[in-house]
Amino acid sequence: MEFKEVVKARRSCRAYESDPVPQDQLTAILEAGQWAPSPLHALPWEYIVVTDAGVKAKIREISEAAKQAVLDGGGPGFAAKYPMDFLEQAPVLIVVVFDPTKKGLGDFFNQKFGAIQAVSTCVQNIMLAAAEYGLGSLFFTWFDPEKMQPVLNIPENLEIAAIIPIGKPKGEVKAPPRKEARIHHEEFSASE
Ligand SMILES: Cc1cc2nc3c(=O)[nH]c(=O)nc-3n(C[C@H](O)[C@H](O)[C@H](O)COP(=O)(O)O)c2cc1C
Questions:
Q1: What whole-number distance in Å separates Cα of residue 128 and Cα of residue 186?
Q2: CB-defined site of ligand 1, < 6 Å
Q3: How close is the Cα of 167 to the center of ligand 1, in Å?
Q4: Domain range for residue 124?
Q5: 13: burial class by Cβ within 10 Å (0-12, 13-18, 19+)?
Q6: Minimal-distance CA residue to ligand 1 atom 25
Q7: Atom nearest to 176 CA in ligand 1
Q8: By alpha-carbon position, which residue is closest to atom 12 of ligand 1?
Q9: Rounded to whole angstroms, how far apart are CA atoms 91 and 165?
Q10: Which tens digit of pLDDT belongs to each residue from 16-60?
Q11: What span, in angstroms and rounded, lies between the C-alpha atoms of 104 and 181?
């Protein structure tokens, strides 16, 4: 696939077949994450690869509780129809954790988000690599991190950037339409 095809092939996938992801593909997908940029080349992320049904069920349980919290808090109605069964359907969940203190030199000039910026590019590399193999993925964050951390034995100094299900998409994944890019020239302009 050409790069622009891969970019468009990556769609947020919320239904998966259970077919396992071949180990060589999983290895290459995680390797793609390692080629993401990071401040001071700190690579502030690590991966937890989850394939065990029991662990996936716990991840789903914590996520379902977060969905309920949104509904109880008067959040958007679509939440009621949002199926979280894909957290158990997908053959693999890649949990990307990161160290928020590994943020480069930003503290010297009031930039705080280096680690978050870096790990986000890592997550995107992973999702693009999955797309190249015809695999679906999702940047999933709908959970209370404090409740998820102990389930996965994540040390307190690390945070969860995303839980990424990976697997063969079940059915067609439609892309939500894109707005035209807002592009300014030379400086921000309200009229452009
Ligand atoms: C930081 C971040 C968090 C997200 N969290 C969720 C999530 O918890 N659940 C979900 O279904 N999609 C989540 N998404 C995916 C977006 O809903 C999705 O990217 C957007 O609707 C555009 O669709 P596309 O990815 O197919 O282009 C998240 C995306 C980002 C970047």
A1: 31
A2: 11-12, 14, 138-142, 175-176
A3: 16
A4: 10-167
A5: buried
A6: 12
A7: 23
A8: 140
A9: 8
A10: 999 999 999 999 999 999 999 999 999 999 999 999 999 999 999
A11: 30
For residue 13, the CA-to-ligand 1 centroid distance in Å is 9
Q: How many other C-beta atoms are found inside a 10 Å radius of the C-beta of residue 32?
A: 18
Separation of CA 109 and ligand 1 centre (Å): 30
CA-178 nearest atom, ligand 1: 27
* Main-chain phi, psi angles of 15, to 5 degrees: -155, 130
- Rounded to an integer, the average pLDDT of 163-171 is 98
CATH of the domain at 107: 3.40.109.10
Is the confidence at residue 175, as pLDDT, over 90?
A: no
**In a domain? residue 151:** yes
Work out the mean pLDDT of the chain and round it to a whole number: 97
Q: What is the pLDDT of residue 60?
A: 98
Q: What's the CA-to-centroid distance between 123 and ligand 1, angstroms?
A: 12
pTM of the complete model beyond 0.90: yes
Number of domains in the chain: 1
